[in-house]
Amino acid sequence: MDQEERRQRRQKDTKNATIIFVAFLLIVLLLVAGAVFVVGKYVIGDQQGEPKETEPGTQATETVPVPVTEVSEAPVVPAVDQTIQQAAEIVAGMTLEDKIAQMFVITPDALTGYNGVTAAGDTTKTAYQERPVGGIIYMSDNLTDREQTAAMLDNMQAIARERTGLPLFLCVDEEGGSVARIASTPAFEIENVGDMSAVGESGDPGNAYNAGNTIGMYLAELGFNVDFAPVADVLTNADNTAIGDRSFGSDAQTVASMVTAELDGLSAAGVYGTVKHFPGHGGTTGDSHDGAVTTERTLEELMAEELVPFQSAVDAGVTFVMVGHISVPNVTGDNTPSSLSEMMITDVLRTQMGYDGIVITDAMNMKAITGHYNSDKAAVLAVTAGADVILMPADYASAYNGLLKAVQDGTITEERIDESVNRIVRAKLLMEQQ
């Protein structure tokens, strides 16, 4: 190979090396550019809240960044918190006398001083303006037919709103079967849903829902918004006559599922249900209408059986729990009725079972109460124990004045009254949202 050939060979080798180097450099530059693009896309995606990865089976889409202008917005407050705050503001603006009146549910007869009241006119308005009770409960002799009942309840609600700005609890005992103020009156032409024992025997909670919804629909149509049902008592004593066919049965879990289903049915119709008779009337032999009633159950035994349906209702968010006049000496250490027992209401129902809704007593005109306590003393004991609402005291004026005096002399603090009235007012606010 001569000198000229060697020179040409070197030029060719140099050219090839240059081409290889340039190609390698281009590859490196492409890799770097790709890496920068990927990193930049991930960083921008993170800053804009875009996902880093696409889930399998979905198609990724490219989002064009949009300039964001910061806007100062008020935090979104849940509706439940709004009602708590609103209730507190309403209660803060009420007089002590009005707050105590809200803690009573009485008959229209007790409100007006007349028997068999079937209308809400000027007499009712005058009485209500003096003491604006939280609710009215109607008995069979107050209910004649559809037209009369709807007009009376509509007028009563208007009277309450004019006086307090709040709706009134318009209540009735409508369990179905033997306890049905509406369906047992022929003039209403409403078919009775029957005893709850038959519903329980069916084993289908859907039947309990249907019963509750049927009752709730015709009650709401008439103007009622609170039903003192369902019965949550487990029928553990075959000799029990006070409850009997009113109970869904003797199995605690069955009763629990039926109770929560019926509550759902009532709620769907816009009616508050009330579980009764805490801590359970199904294992007793007596009737609190006639005198003292006692169960020998321990707290552990109650928790394992009688209280199971009540706990299910509490967990489901029930608004009203009615406490019966049942003595539980193996829990409380004495014969104080549960309706007047701080241990049963505050320690067991509120603290251990986690209930923060409205506690209403069973009717305080029953002999289990009147045989041992005056109306004023019974009302004070019930509120001291943790009750929010006193139902049907034997002497309403005495019970009201007794509670008022107890606050004035420091036996009960006004803060304790506010606690109950806040629950009552909040339930009324939530009722309006349904």
Q: Explain this structure to me?
A:
The chain has helices at 3-47, 79-92, 96-101, 108-112, 122-130, 146-164, 196-202, 205-222, 252-268, 299-304, 308-315, 329-332, 342-352, 367-370, 375-385, 396-408, 414-433, and strands spanning 104-106, 135-138, 169-172, 174-176, 179-180, 226-227, 274-278, 293-294, 320-323, 326-327, 358-361, 390-391. The chain has 434 residues and is an alpha/beta fold. The strands form 4 sheets. A 5-stranded parallel β-sheet has the order 6-3-2-1-12. It has a 3-stranded parallel β-sheet with strand order 7-9-11. It has a two-stranded antiparallel ribbon with strand order 4-5. Strand 2, helix 6 and strand 3 form a beta-alpha-beta unit. It is globular and about 50 Å long.
CATH superfamily of the largest domain: Glycoside hydrolase, family 3, N-terminal domain
Average pLDDT works out at: 86
SS field, number of helical segments: 17
User: Order of strands in the sheet with the most strands?
Assistant: 6-3-2-1-12
Tell me the major beta sheet: 5 strands, parallel
What portion of residues belong to β-strands?
A: 5-15%
What portion of residues is helical?
Answer: 40-55%
Order of helices and strands: HHHEHHEHEEEHHEHEEHHEEHHEHHEHH
CATH-defined fold name of the largest domain: TIM Barrel
Structural class call reads: alpha/beta
**Secondary structure: number of strands:** 12
Q: Would you identify the CATH architecture of the largest domain?
A: Alpha-Beta Barrel
Q: What best-fitting shape do the alpha-carbon axes yield?
A: globular
Which regions have little confidence, pLDDT < 50, spanning 5+ residues?
1-8, 36-80
CATH class of the largest domain: Alpha Beta
Q: Number of domains in the coordinates?
A: 2
**Rounded Rg:** 34 Å
